[in-house]
Design goal:
single chain, 482 residues, Aldehyde Dehydrogenase, Chain A, domain 1, 21 strands, 22% strand, globular, binds nicotinamide-adenine-dinucleotide
Length: 482
Amino acid sequence: MTVERMQMYIDGEWTESISRETFFSIDPASTKPLAEVPRGGSEDIDRAVKAARTAFESRDWQEMLPAERGRMLYRMAQLIREQQAELARLESLDTGKPLSQAQTDVEVAARYCEYYAGVADKILGETIPVRPDVLDYTVREPLGVTAHIVPWNYPIQIAARSLAPALAAGNTMVIKPAEDTPITALKLAQLAETAGVPAGVVNVVTGFGTEAGAPLAAHPDIDHITFTGSVATGTAVMKAAAVNIKPVTLELGGKSPNIVFADANMDEAAQWVVRSIVQNAGQTCSAGSRLLVERSIREEFVALVTEKMKQLRIGPGLENPDVGPIISQKQLERIESYMRVAQTEGAAIRIGGQRCPSAGAGFFFEPTVVDHVSASSPLAQEEIFGPVLVVLPFDTIEEALAIANGTEYGLVAGIWTNHIHKAHWLAARLRAGQVFVNNYGAGGGVEMTFGGYRKSGFGREKGLEALKYYTQVKNIAIKISL
Ligand code: NAD
């Protein structure tokens, strides 16, 4: 396979890094290099932030009709769809994810552009009845230059998730894709250029976290940071932002439970429990990584889950298997370290638990179910970020709630029951940003508010709610005197 040589995008120009250094993005299915991209550093970040600032303050941008920003996003949506096959192929190669999942990701990226295209001219203020001789109203203004630090698990989807509302609201931006998966963010910038987005409005700087991500988070001339990734890096980003008093939106993953009651439709629940932990090889912030199952059906249900896992095909993303490789050697070793914890703690590995060399030369790991784990074990508390499901039985609904709420995270929860009162009782008490009853994910949901409780982060993405985080409110009071 030929290695694609790519440049990054600053101020409407395709460019090398100032150091002229590069690095390779690796195909995790074969461990071979896929693309060579510029190794951006603090000077490149500075260039990009300056370009975004100049673009933001330009008369053309300030005077552009909101509807025109919407049209740009519509054109981006169309272009993404026109190039769906190629974008999905690249995303599948770069991340390792099954081709069908990459195709969905590309369509979701198009949907983000389309969804926020429609609201660009509907970002409304309020009139506030203060007193008869005062006209008081609010306007929602863009923040200015927004910084977007993107992880490697859903590169095009997460880049589009914040690009689209930020642009719809009138911001200009600097995007830093993950070093493991820089390709489709650069393709997105190409499409923005073709869609007529002016130079400097969207900038993409490729590079490593410490070399490009950290200077972006610490840059004094940005106005907001959207970060998706680990708690440790999120903490570093928040600290850097604190120095300059910049707002942050943090999406930091989770340890999300699927809570299965004895009265649930077992086959359907098992299907979704498996799907929610093997999607993207478990490298999903909202992965259903804990199975809380009513003790009376524990054996039967776990057998059903392991039976479904046995049927899964593991292989390179482009062969469209059920499960692709893990993103990197580092992440593979991290998953293995949790398997050693399972061994030390005497947990039972019901299926999987090891690498899968028969799937290829890359970083493959078998879908895994770990049973007989204490709720306080690192296996049940920490984000493993692999296809590893931990089983935790419960006897009462109160116990299910306590276990479900018993981690530092709170991103998503699934409830499986045919008892409406149990569903409502739990939905009201779960500490999670999204709760699903008898489904998990509702098909992706560009329209649904998404974000974390507790260490899963704060701020909200997706839906109309996201616009609040890319705008600031100004109150204007006008004295009327005759
Ligand atoms: P990470 O959080 O370190 O990386 C995410 C992004 O942050 C990347 O673009 C990276 O370059 C950048 N980054 C790294 N260090 C930075 C810094 N000091 N300042 C600014 N930006 C920086 O994630 P990782 O190390 O690649 O993965 C480790 C763990 O993160 C995973 O095991 C998983 O638990 C978690 N993770 C979560 C998500 C999610 O969607 N919630 C996504 C990816 C990773």
